[in-house]
Write a sequence for this structure.
């Protein structure tokens, strides 16, 4: 177990140390005070526990590592994550897991706008509410919202599955409510279990693409 | 006026191509989408000429006295800057818009000529990485195929904020080109019309961009030069902000820059020509005392060694070619004229890159058409072309008495038109007048 104090180490030193870790290594990071680009570009199965709030792009492009943030996260948390797990105990700002291709992001509090924008395979579980334009142009993977969703949820969505337990303020263009089939309930139960969120699957509704915008159609022009 | 019947007068407001577009729009109900770049007549580098050495300057001997062309790009912050033999680089073009064979040809040609090539929307293919000695990885708003392993495999990273063909617009790849491989790389269903985002998903302004650049450097151990590419519009401010955000290299793409598929209205009516864009970018760098410290790459309508020399004389460090590189590979070849005609075009006019039925096998995902381009031959043609541009550039530089192509300067040129004089900031030929300078 190595402890890195950001009052004494630079961001470069921190990331070099974390990126150079071997599978199974554990790190604790203290005194983050909202600094940016912390714990980015990790490629090994290391455990990182960050105590304090973090700024932009924490856990960016994560591969394999498990990163836990005991605090709130700034914009672009776990952006373009490929694999591994990122968990934040507080809230996350805009664009959490933007374009992320894989892995699991758990936000125990609320997520701001554009959560899961252009997501490409990541799974996201939000314990609280999510802001407007979340899952915009979302391509694949699943977004689970245990609270409410803001305006224009899933606008221009492709094949991402969205599960919302609470209210949806409005759905975006080409996003519709869909049936909860057996396979969806199984997937949702698994994601809730992984995220350690204790809710009944039957309380959720599923949303996804109506697929009307997949090929240009002049008769759909009002939707553009 | 018609050549055959002098009583028929063609309208300047409604010439035949305008009438045809109105008729096409009324018939189809969709705007015209096409490839290539702006086709309208605008001021270009052709409107500048060099003042070869004479009594007041002396030239260098052609083929005897050295005129070097090596370029170093990205030595502001990056540990491993890019070293090129020639200032002519290959612009970003995607696998998806181009066939795998075309991407391989670009890599082979660039490598033979000692220069770099660039990925595009949709990510890096093993073919282009394998055949490109120096490969620039584009970081685009869509992040299709974006992968940190590829980021580390690249030699430099180009953050694309816009391109000259469509500043403020996103990419477009129509369903007929979304083959199974392209769909898999982009994580999208096959056959859908794919629209790339016009702005990045995880930042909104230059202050955020600075943090994004920091993140990219942290992920790549501060080794890779970071380029920032903008479409030419408010060039002075955009270049200033890119430098302030921490770019090692700024790429400015003028409105003649090509595209695989964009609305014609965008191609022809958004952005400014490359000619004024170079001057504006150089002024921004000079004002910050960053000229030659942050390198400037200029693209958009570069066709000849003369264009390269003029861009460099205005202060660019290097240029990029896209459309011209495709023509060197075989695009627009008369060899395919019958086939171009069969699909309603002709060699020299073909611009429907979005259709995927390119007779030359370059802008296609059709495996049978793509086979028509031999990557080894294509690479050789491209290398030949780049070598010609470089020789032409050296010829002009020597004539101006320069022992390195970067020693070319605005003082070596005059303009043939008032418009070009104002845009490039060089005097109108035979005068000392630069419109817009010194209150004149």
């Amino acid at each position: 177990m190595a402890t890195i104090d950001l009052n004494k180490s630079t961001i470069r030193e921190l990331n070099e140390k974390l990126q150079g870790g071997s599978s199974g290594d554990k790190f604790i990071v203290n005194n983050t005070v909202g600094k940016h680009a912390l714990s980015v570009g990790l490629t090994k199965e290391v455990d990182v526990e960050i105590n304090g709030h973090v700024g932009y792009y924490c856990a960016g492009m994560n591969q394999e590592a498990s990163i836990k943030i005991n605090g709130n996260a700034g914009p672009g948390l776990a952006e373009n994550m490929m694999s591994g797990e990122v968990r934040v105990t507080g809230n996350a700002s805009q664009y959490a897991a933007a374009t992320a291709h894989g892995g699991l992001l758990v936000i125990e509090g609320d997520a701001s706008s554009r959560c899961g924008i252009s997501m490409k395979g990541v799974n996201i579980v939000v314990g609280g509410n999510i802001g407007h334009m979340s899952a915009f142009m979302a391509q694949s993977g699943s977004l689970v919202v245990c609270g409410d969703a803001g305006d224009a949820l899933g606008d221009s969505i492709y094949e991402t599955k969205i599960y919302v337990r609470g209210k949806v303020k409005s759905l975006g263009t080409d996003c519709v409510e869909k049936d909860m089939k057996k396979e969806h309930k199984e997937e949702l139960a698994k994601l809730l279990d992984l995220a350690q969120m204790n809710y009944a699957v039957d309380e959720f509704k599923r949303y996804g693409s109506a697929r009307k915008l997949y090929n240009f159609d002049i008769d759909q022009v009002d939707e553009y | 006026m018609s050549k055959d019947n002098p009583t028929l007068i063609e309208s300047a407001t409604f010439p035949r191509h305008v009438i045809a577009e109105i008729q096409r729009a009324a018939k189809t109900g969709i705007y015209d989408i096409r490839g290539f770049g702006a086709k309208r007549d605008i001021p270009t580098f052709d409107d500048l000429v060099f003042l070869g050495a004479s009594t007041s300057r002396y030239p260098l001997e052609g083929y005897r006295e050295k005129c070097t062309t090596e370029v170093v790009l990205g030595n502001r912050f990056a540990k491993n800057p890019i070293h090129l033999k020639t200032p002519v680089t290959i612009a970003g073009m995607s696998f998806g818009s181009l066939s795998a064979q075309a991407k391989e040809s670009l890599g082979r040609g660039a490598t033979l000529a000692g220069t770099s090539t660039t990925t595009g929307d949709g990510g890096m293919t093993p073919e282009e990485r394998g055949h490109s000695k120096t490969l620039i990885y584009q970081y685009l708003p869509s992040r299709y195929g974006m992968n940190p392993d590829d980021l580390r495999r690249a030699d430099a990273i180009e953050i694309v904020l816009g391109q000259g063909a469509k500043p403020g617009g996103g990419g477009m790849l129509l369903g007929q080109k979304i083959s199974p491989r392209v769909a898999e790389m982009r994580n999208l269903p096959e056959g859908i019309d794919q629209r790339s985002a016009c702005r990045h998903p995880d930042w909104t302004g230059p202050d955020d961009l600075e943090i994004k650049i920091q993140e990219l450097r942290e992920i790549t151990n501060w080794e890779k030069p970071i380029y920032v590419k903008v479409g030419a519009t408010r060039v002075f401010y955009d270049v200033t902000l890119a430098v302030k955000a921490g770019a090692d290299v700024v790429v400015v793409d003028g409105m003649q820059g090509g595209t695989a598929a964009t609305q014609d209205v965008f191609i022809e009516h958004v952005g400014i020509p490359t000619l004024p864009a170079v001057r504006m970018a150089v002024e921004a760098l000079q004002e910050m005392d960053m000229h030659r410290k942050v390198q400037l790459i200029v693209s958009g309508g570069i066709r000849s060694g003369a264009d390269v020399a003029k861009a460099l004389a205005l202060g660019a460090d290097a240029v990029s070619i896209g459309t011209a590189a495709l023509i060197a590979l075989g695009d627009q070849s008369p060899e395919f004229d019958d086939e171009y005609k069969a699909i309603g075009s002709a060699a020299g006019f073909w611009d429907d890159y979005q259709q995927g039925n390119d007779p030359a096998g370059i802008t296609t995902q059709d495996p049978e058409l793509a086979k028509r381009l031999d990557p080894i031959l294509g690479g050789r043609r491209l290398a030949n072309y780049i070598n010609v541009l470089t020789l032409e550039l050296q010829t002009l530089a020597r004539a101006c008495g320069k022992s390195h192509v970067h020693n070319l300067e605005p003082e070596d040129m005059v303009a043939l038109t008032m418009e070009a004089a104002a845009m490039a900031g060089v005097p109108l030929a035979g005068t000392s007048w630069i419109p817009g300078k010194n209150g004149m």
